[in-house]
Amino acid sequence: MDMGGSMQISTLGGPGHVAAGGMPPVGGVGEVVMETMEVPDHCVGLGNVIGRGGEQISQIQSQTNCRVQMSPESDGNNMRQCTLQGSKMSVDRARAMINE
């Protein structure tokens, strides 16, 4: 194997993708933040957050580039913990969509 030759490597994406080895960070370029909010139980399941078959949560994640995770059960006061992780802007957008 000739190790003395040259090799060309191409990457797609912006500087953040290149810095991450071609993989975008969770929230896009910039600092990743994590925020926890409470969501009423009735808004989870088939409601505003998860939706039938996870459609709604998938849509929120794809439109905002923010990871959204719901706690599996309420904390006893009919509220569920929702963790948002991504850039500040993506977390803000995901929070706004959940609060609609």
TrEMBL record:
**Protein keywords:** Repeat, RNA-binding
Instruction: Cite a single Pfam family from the UniProt record.
Output: KH_1
Q: Which domain of life is it from?
A: Eukaryota
The record ties this protein, via SMART domains, to: KH
| Domain K Homology intervals | 31-100
Q: Which InterPro entries match?
A: KH_dom (IPR004087), KH_dom_type_1 (IPR004088), KH_dom_type_1_sf (IPR036612)
One GO MF annotation is:
RNA binding
Record protein name field: Bm12126
Q: What taxonomic ancestry is recorded? A: Eukaryota, Metazoa, Ecdysozoa, Nematoda, Chromadorea
